[in-house]
Automatic annotation (TrEMBL):
Gene Ontology MF: a single term: oxidoreductase activity
Chain ranges of the Thioredoxin domain: 10-223
Organism from which the protein derives: Mycoplana azooxidifex
Entries under InterPro entries matching the protein: Redoxin, Thioredoxin-like_sf, Thioredoxin_domain
Protein name from the UniProt record: Peroxiredoxin
Pfam families with a match to the protein in the record: Redoxin (PF08534)
Length: 226
């Protein structure tokens, strides 16, 4: 498969390229081409499962899978975690009604135009570079989960401890390789055209670690042609 790369995130009206990835919750491969002409699909592209924000984003999306399926929309969740580690996680945290795929090389993320940000000492160039002081100045506010607003590094450590998520050497390698990967969701119609999207690229960082509102996604899904 020829690899595609976008200079910016795909937007409504763009045609999504085909990507072929290892399926997590069944054997073999999964390709976007599989859905074309068959069903619409919500494609969620996330960092590795070592990221507690992504785990929550994935869980929130999975809760909508049955509602989307009623509208003829499949759900595809893509993580940067290598296949065997991902299969182990989803064995204990299954995603009913969701197809999951492993993308340790961020092929799909690049194809959809989601950059993997580089952490720097003092240079900010959103969304490609971000300095550690800028990250440390950010505050993640998750009432009910975090005791107070925290910088992303401390928040991640706190949530992983709270979740009982034990980092493995494989998780460490994924975090080193894709810890700055920006995430997004893309709703594709039966022809593979983007009809709605949400990405962390938006808002110069204000969308980081956010989860799109369920009603916004369901509204967009309701407007898809059948």
């Amino acid at each position: 498969m020829a690899e595609h790369a976008m200079e910016r995130p795909l937007r409504p009206g763009d045609r999504a390229p085909n990507v072929v990835l290892d399926a997590i919750n069944h054997g073999g491969k999964v390709a976007l081409e599989d859905f074309r002409g068959q069903s619409a699909v919500l494609v969620g592209l996330y960092r590795g499962l070592q990221c507690p924000f992504c785990r929550r984003h994935i869980a929130a999306t999975a809760e909508l899978a049955s509602s989307l399926h009623e509208k003829g929309i499949d759900s595809l969740t893509v993580v940067n975690t290598p296949i065997e580690r991902a299969r182990l996680y989803f064995r204990y945290h299954p995603l009913p009604g969701v197809i999951a795929a492993s993308d340790p090389d961020s092929i799909a993320h690049r194809a959809f135009g989601l950059p993997n940000m580089q952490f720097t000492e003092d240079e900010d160039q959103w969304p490609y570079k971000i300095s550690v002081p800028t990250v440390m100045a950010m505050r993640v506010d998750m009432p009910g989960e975090l005791p107070e607003p925290m910088n992303p590094f401390d928040a991640s450590t706190f949530l992983n401890r709270h979740d009982g998520y034990e980092m493995t050497p494989e998780d460490d390698r994924t975090d080193e390789r894709a810890g700055g990967q920006l995430v997004g969701e893309f709703l594709l119609d039966r022809d593979g055209i983007v009809r709605w999207s949400f990405t962390e690229v938006e808002g110069d960082g204000s969308s980081m670690f956010a989860i799109p509102k369920a009603e916004e996604l369901i509204s967009a899904a309701s407007r898809l042609p059948h």
